[in-house]
Specification:
The complex is a heterodimer of chains A (about 110) and B (about 200). With about 110 residues, chain A is mainly alpha-helical. Helices cover about 40% and strands about 5% of the residues of chain A. Helix content of chain B is about 20%, strand content about 10%. In chain B, the strands form 3 sheets. A 4-stranded antiparallel beta sheet of chain B has the order 5-4-7-8, with no helix packed on it. Chain B has a 3-stranded antiparallel beta sheet with strand order 2-6-3, with no helix packed on it. Chain B is rod-shaped and about 95 Å long. The chains are: A mainly alpha (about 110), B alpha+beta (about 200).
């Protein structure tokens, strides 16, 4: 059986950690405006530092590449787990056609 | 974007969102929303866009919807019982301990002739009994007794019992078999006792 992907997901040991996303509102406006202002001036490093320093708060408002990679990996691991949860029996004439995983059963139909 | 982020799986399959780009009919709504965002009126922008119909965008409800569906699917899978092994490999031939068998030098009335049984060197191939010899002494394989005059009993009720430790089993005249490899085949095939209707037994 091939291994789970472990860069962002710990499934099936742990379920996905939900972000509880929120739309930006006036309670977070000051930080957002500050970040946008720095970006508009080309001060990306300073904007990045503000994000890092306030990551716990901002994580509810940010969807970035890590978020998408995490979702992709969670789905990937979930599918792997689901597939091996049920043993399957394959009837294929050739072992090359057998697409099972460990503990599946391959029964050759012969020629 | 008015979408319900709650996942109802596994009670039902969640409906698809069919996320799409906004079309020209919604351009004025989106322009107004973006204008409010540009002005930093975030709460007002949210209040404006939430009740709008047919608006798609990267809003919190949509992202929470994705994570809730992943979470519920994972939780459902983890709650499933361990998979049942539907295939078992069952050797219907009964294996008796050699210590349960008794060989006697004479025939009792209730004994069972050895011809009723089969001797295997493995579970696949029946050995030719004519090639099997039982010897009182493993060194005297030239004058071994024919198996046809030997008898096997399920239990011991005779006084004159042969010492099994002195009996040697051969599958042919050259190679001695271990007594551990002696199997007794009981005849008709029966399903494994732990098989049910969903079990494939080989």
């Amino acid at each position: 059986m091939s291994e789970y992907s472990r860069e962002f997901s710990n499934f099936p040991s742990e379920k996905i950690t939900k972000h509880n996303f929120k739309n930006v509102d006036d309670t977070i406006a000051s930080i957002i405006n500050q970040i946008n202002s720095l970006r508009s001036q080309g001060l990306y490093n300073q904007a990045s530092r503000i994000i890092q320093n306030n990551y716990d708060i901002l994580s509810h408002y940010i969807v970035d590449a890590i978020t998408f990679r995490t979702w992709e990996e969670e789905i990937y691991n979930t599918q792997k787990y689901a597939r091996q949860k049920q043993q399957s029996i394959y009837f294929d004439a050739s072992e090359e056609d057998f697409d099972g995983i460990e503990e599946d059963v391959w029964i050759s139909g012969g020629d | 974007m008015s979408c319900n982020p709650v996942s109802y799986f596994p009670n039902k399959v969640d409906e698809m969102i069919f996320f799409q780009d906004n079309n020209l009919e919604n351009v004025e709504v989106m322009n107004h929303y973006n204008e409010l965002i540009t002005q930093g009126k975030y709460t007002e922008a949210n209040d404006y866009i939430s009740p709008q119909e047919g608006i798609y965008g990267f809003f919190a409800d949509f992202f929470n919807l994705i994570e809730n569906r992943i979470y519920n699917t994972q939780e459902y899978l983890l709650s499933k019982p361990q998979k049942k092994q539907p295939v078992i490999y069952y050797d219907e031939e009964e294996h008796y301990s050699i210590n349960d068998l008794h060989v006697f030098a004479y025939i009792e009335e209730e004994d069972m002739p050895i011809n009723c049984f089969h001797i295997f060197t493995d579970t696949d191939e029946d050995e030719d009994l004519s090639l099997v010899r039982l010897f009182e002494d493993e060194n005297s394989n030239e004058d071994g007794e024919s198996i046809n005059i030997m008898h096997v009993f399920a239990d011991c009720y005779a006084e004159i019992e042969e010492d099994f430790s002195s009996v040697v089993l051969f599958s042919d005249n050259d190679e001695q078999e271990s007594l551990e490899n002696l199997y007794i085949f009981t005849g008709e095939e029966e399903p494994p006792p732990n098989a049910d209707i969903d079990t494939i037994w080989i």
